[in-house]
Design a protein that fits this description.
Number of helices: 12
Helix content: under 10%
Strand content: 35-45%
Number of strands: 57
Radius of gyration: 33 Å
Length: 1173
């Protein structure tokens, strides 16, 4: 790490002649003229921040043009002076984050000693830039009702922004706490996790989401920049979120706060009400403070903030557990909810080839089985391990309507805590030199029971997830002359996550389930119970998924800004280095998966219209569908990045401004510290070893049987590795085409009306982790020794008692070359990795209205190319697929396995003396699977109408009646190119479709506001009210949020066809969200092409209006001290948002039925106090 920092600092010194910064500070620009409209050259223009008395000064050029960049957001006084003219002072000029304020001034003839003062007069429409965005100023940030007080949750109120995370509560993914890290924001149709987040200009995003959310008391303001036609902003595929911290001032100011809630004030959840359970325990405190002031007046300013968070919160779980009546193996009387007949279970030991003509053979598969007598699995056929596992499921305690979710635990809790200190120091060296530095640190943890089961069957982060982030930033300004400023900054961000490896602290071991042996992984030796998955029911037992990761970013930026004539220019460069470390145990003690594969009548698929097969039956018999043990290595990845740009804001005349920019980025391919990476696939290298061993056997079998698949001429193809055999250490080819032009136009064709438009190209940060086959290995469970004719035995080797008697596949790194994982599956990234690029454009009309209101309407479009896709390369050719669709039994039939005895016995292709004919027809037959990832063939396109009606709060709030609001409405469509059949390359090419994305929300309406009730001392009514009357009637404030979004597009039922036209034709109810008639559905035949799109545009999930409301009362203790008491109600109307109906198997009991649980919080009421001085 020390060498990284030394290289970083050396590279930054080498950049001292060039510059780039992703700027959070504001710029004032304009033209100074006299009453005859003649320009006034060499006039002095000085901007002074009112709370610090720190100023920046420039002079107008020969055309009267001036620019003052690098101004911290805040309230300024601008003084303009020139000989022969009266001095003009423009006070209370509000500068917002990253704003370009056009401030034209007319000087009156007179003595320079005479002054003309104009208070608070500035444009509300943006006339200096085509960029678009919404600023959340200190009033909005600190006073809008904000559940969890996580500042970036305000982003969702901006036009063009969609927050598509719907699961709230204590799941840890709601984004409502500052502890959370959330990538669920899309901006202008960009992908989730493709935005850039800046904190005082320093990037705090390594993967398109924020690593830390500063507490609201420490934030000056932030801006959601939905269209940025300024070339200084980069590494985004959506938008940029630009945040600035508070600074100290010439007066000491601060606040102390505490926000508290418990269950007494909360509503109960819908799932608890449905099962007659009480509200869970709740206690939450969010506390802290901020203080800022001068160390030396006009020279040194300090700000310190701290926020702490402690929460015990209800996490009511609604899950599915096996019904008691089938836990002993008796299915004779069990009728699933919503069905009219019992489930039939079949004996896998009676499997035989299905050769007789008839429905049961042609529609089912290769093998057929006999039912268990009486539909009861005899005790002699049940596994001790399976019986032990099922005992740990809790008993059902809830009877749903046509639903499988039959266990509710209302007293389930989540536990969270974090601390976040922030410090910032601003120092003025002289009029020409100044710097600031800041440090942000956050540390938190969560404890969460995901399934709600009781120990030891629970899973989740029960031993504590830790998340920690620290950001250091240093910035230096040098005013070289009145028309040129140099700004340099460096930053370091380190984000760490530590997920636990177990829910029970390692106390519950596999022998307690009757398992005699699971091989130990040397790097993570333990005997914990494996994770168990039973299809249709919730998983049980611990995480066993130790994952320790860190993301670091070293960044340096330096810009030069200068004014020449009518041109305000910036130019320069940026350097960043991304470092990612990962250490993951995976499922080091194993994962067991049970499905219906062994209890169906046919092994390949379920019968249409017949309930055959049950996952509980497979569990009781001890017959796994699949399983594996992970044997993983750790990794340290590095990616350097350079960016260069030039930006020119050309003030053509007083009405027209052009923003012209050009940017070029270069991102090197990923490398690993010890070359522990797969670097592609060599399609042409002949595997001499396998060719010499298998071809004689294969050719002999083919000669004896004309129906036996023809042997290939040679066996070729395999993985190649970084730094081996002439392969570069970098696993991706450099994309040299990252050219990003930007152009914007702002034309003020009427005094209070402006037209703006722009176009730009953007390249986001590539965040692929790469493939590690060979260094991290899964040892799969081989479920059959005879090609799925019969399962493994119930006891002894290969049973649940000893699933991996041959031991584990040991990671061999790159030593085996193209033989790596032969007989199993391999994955690799395509070396040709062009960085995803977004083409973004907009056209806007903005009008300033009376009473400080602004109306804006925009058409916005975007098109992103080079989105990545994963395809399967080892499938059969298209001709074979077409033939297999006509005759699936022939292709699924078992034949003699030529690989047996040649490939490892613990790999799928080497485990059995027989193998399906299909496996021998694969184009790369020595691998069970060959997946190529990072194929740049995908695209996303977006079109939207975005409107904003904003009432700004101007002037002093003490006059009362102050009102501000933002009403935002977006009507849009977001589409992506996808494919219906990814397992076959040729069919992929033939079936490319355009479908709505999962983040598409056709309509998005948001309305937020803050209102000071105009009653009380200093306000419109009762301005002279006495202290007692003011204490009762004065100082009241209310604020609110109100929102509605269209529901999420529902996914199509994979593997099925819909035969009845429009699935919305039925009357929509909770138990029939769409057509549930089984006669309208038919299961796809084996090898049949999927006809339905992956998602429906017209069929959407549940949605509802959501609202929050807050009421506050301020008490003036002294002129300097005041106390604010707040009451906040989140989900004020207690309106539940429901989950999506199941859309998988039309014969399932919950198909088309809304789940019982709600996704959002029930109504929560929070009480808070804030003491300010």
């Amino acid at each position: 790490m020390k060498s990284e920092i030394r290289f970083f600092m050396t590279a930054m010194l080498a950049l001292s002649g060039l510059a780039l910064a992703q700027e959070y500070r504001a710029t004032i620009l304009g033209q100074v003229t006299d009453p005859t409209k003649s320009v006034v050259p060499k006039a002095t223009v000085k901007a002074t921040k009112q709370d610090t008395n720190v100023s920046k000064e420039t002079i107008t050029n020969d055309q009267g043009i001036y620019t003052i960049p690098g101004l911290d957001p805040g309230i300024y006084t601008v003084t303009i002076a020139s000989s022969g003219f009266q001095t003009t002072r423009r006070t209370d000029i509000v500068l917002q984050v990253a704003e370009k304020l056009n401030l034209n001034v007319v000087l009156e003839v007179g003595q320079i000693t005479q002054e003309v003062t104009v208070v608070g007069e500035q444009e509300l429409v943006q006339t200096a830039s085509a960029s678009r965005g919404l600023v959340f100023d200190p009033i909005k940030v600190q006073e809008l009702p904000l559940n969890g007080r996580q500042s970036y949750m305000l982003m969702r109120f901006s036009p063009g922004v969609t927050f598509d995370q719907r699961q709230f509560g204590s799941s840890g993914f709601s984004g409502t706490r500052a502890w959370d890290v959330n990538g669920s924001f899309t901006i202008n149709g960009g992908r989730n996790g493709s935005n850039q987040f800046l904190l005082d200009g320093a990037p705090i995003s390594t993967n398109g989401t924020f690593n830390v959310a500063p507490n609201v008391e420490a934030i000056q303001e932030f801006k959601v920049m939905v269209n940025t036609y300024d070339a200084q902003y980069a590494r985004t595929g959506g938008g940029t979120v630009n945040t600035t911290l508070k600074s100290g001032t010439n007066e000491w100011h601060g606040s102390l706060f505490d926000f508290w809630r418990n269950r007494v004030l909360d509503a109960n959840s819908r799932q608890n009400n449905a099962s007659n359970q009480k509200r869970g325990f709740r206690n939450q405190h969010q506390f802290g403070g901020v203080i800022g002031g001068p160390l030396r007046r006009d020279k040194d300013f300090i700000m310190f903030s701290f926020e702490g968070f402690r929460e015990l919160t209800p996490f009511p779980s609604v899950t599915s557990v096996p019904p008691m009546e089938i836990r002993e193996g008796d299915f004779s009387k069990f009728i699933p909810a919503g069905q009219s007949s019992t489930i039939k279970v079949f004996d896998p030991m009676t499997s035989r080839p299905c050769t007789l003509p008839g429905t049961n053979c042609t529609s089912g598969g290769v093998y057929i089985r006999d039912a268990f007598p009486g539909n009861i699995i005899p005790k002699s056929r049940q596994s001790v391990v399976g019986q032990n596992i099922i005992k740990y499921y809790p008993a059902p305690n809830f009877t749903p309507t046509a639903l499988s979710q039959n266990f509710v635990r209302g007293d389930n809790l989540g536990k969270y805590r974090y601390e976040q200190p922030i410090v910032k120091w601003d120092h003025v060296i002289s009029d020409k030199h100044r710097f600031n530095t800041s440090y942000t640190w956050q540390d938190g943890s969560e404890y969460r029971n995901s399934n709600g089961f009781y120990p030891p069957a629970q899973n989740g982060n029960m031993t504590g997830t830790v998340r920690r982030d620290q950001v250091w930033k240093f910035a230096y300004d040098w005013l070289q002359n009145p028309t040129r400023i140099v700004h340099w900054q460096a930053s370091y961000d380190r984000f760490v996550e530590n997920f636990p490896d177990d829910s029970s602290g390692g106390e519950f071991t596999y022998d307690k389930l009757g398992i005699k042996n699971i091989p130990l992984v040397p790097t993570y030796p333990n005997k914990r119970a494996p994770r168990v998955q039973v299809s249709g029911y919730n998983e049980i037992f611990g995480n066993q998924y130790l994952n320790q990761s860190s993301r670091q970013q070293l960044n340096s930026q330096l810009y030069v800004a200068e004014t020449r004539g009518r041109h305000s220019m910036k130019y320069g460069a940026e350097y960043a280095k991304l470092i990612r470390h990962n250490k993951s145990a995976g499922r080091s003690s194993g994962l067991f998966n049970f499905d219906t594969v062994w209890s169906r009548q046919h092994q390949g698929r379920r019968l249409s219209g017949v309930l055959d097969g049950a996952s509980v039956a497979d569990l009781l018999m001890g017959e796994m569908n699949s399983g594996y043990v992970d044997f993983n290595d750790s990794f340290l990845r590095r990616e350097p990045y350079w960016g260069f740009y030039f930006q020119d804001d050309w003030k053509v005349n007083s009405k027209l401004t052009l923003n012209i920019g050009f940017r070029y980025d270069w991102q090197a391919g990923l490398t690993e510290s010890h070359d522990r990476l797969v670097a592609g696939f060599n399609y042409n290298q002949v595997n001499q070893d396998l060719t010499s061993k298998v071809l004689p056997v294969w050719q002999k079998l083919a000669a004896a049987d004309p129906n036996f698949p023809k042997a290939p001429s040679v066996i070729k193809g395999g993985l190649q590795f970084a730094g081996v055999g002439g392969v570069p250490r970098s696993i991706y080819d450099v994309d040299w085409s990252n050219i990003q032009p930007r152009i914007g136009v702002a034309y003020q064709f009427l005094p209070k009306t402006v037209m703006r438009g722009g176009f730009g190209i953007y390249h986001r940060t590539a965040t692929q982790n790469s493939q590690t086959t060979g260094f991290s290995i899964q040892t799969p469970y081989i479920r059959s020794a005879d090609g799925d004719l019969t399962p493994r035995p119930q006891t002894g080797n290969y049973s649940l008692e000893n699933p991996w008697p041959d031991g584990l596949i040991v990671p061999y790194g790159n030593k085996l070359g193209i033989n790596t994982n032969a007989g199993g599956g391999v994955s690799f990234d395509n070396r040709n990795r062009p960085i995803p690029r977004t083409y973004q454009w907009s056209y806007t009309l903005e009008r300033e209205l009376p009473w400080s209101m602004v109306l804006e309407a925009s058409y916005v479009g975007s098109w992103t190319t080079h989105e990545t896709k994963t395809i399967q390369l080892s499938a059969m050719g298209q001709a074979d697929y077409e033939a297999a669709f006509k005759n699936p039994t022939f292709y699924q039939a078992a034949v003699t396995n030529p690989w047996y005895g040649i490939l490892p016995a613990n790999q799928p292709l080497g485990a059995s003396p027989t193998i399906s004919r299909e496996n021998l027809l694969r184009r790369i037959p020595q691998f069970n699977s060959v997946q190529s990832a990072i194929n740049p063939w995908g695209a996303v396109h977006y079109h939207g109408l975005q409107t904003r009606f904003e009432k700004r709060m101007m002037g002093a709030r003490s006059k009362g009646g102050a009102l501000t609001w933002v009403l935002a409405y977006t009507w849009s469509k977001q589409m992506e190119t996808t494919n219906r059949q990814e397992y076959n390359f040729e069919w992929y090419k033939n079936f490319v479709d355009s479908v709505v994305t999962s983040a598409d929300r056709s309509h998005n309406f948001q309305f937020v506001g803050i209102w000071d009730v105009p009653v009380g001392r200093g306000r419109a009514f009762g301005a002279n009210m006495g202290k007692v009357g003011d204490a009762i009637l004065g100082g009241w404030n209310t604020n609110w949020t109100l929102g509605y979004m269209s529901g999420v597009p529902l996914g199509a039922w994979t593997g099925w066809k819909y035969l009845c036209g429009d699935p919305r034709q039925v009357e929509r109810t909770e138990t029939q969200w769409f057509d549930r008639r089984t006669s309208c559905y038919a299961q796809n035949q084996p090898y049949e092409q999927q006809q339905l799109m992956p998602r429906f545009h017209q069929l959407r999930g549940h949605t509802a209006w959501q609202s929050d409301l807050a009421i506050a009362k301020k008490f003036a203790i002294t002129e300097r001290w005041n106390l604010e008491l707040r009451g906040e109600s989140f989900n004020f109307t207690n309106t539940p948002l429901r989950g999506d109906p199941a859309s998988g198997n039309p014969s399932a009991s919950d198909f088309g039925v809304l789940p019982v649980q709600q996704l959002n919080f029930p109504r929560n009421i929070q009480i808070g106090a804030r003491l300010r001085f």
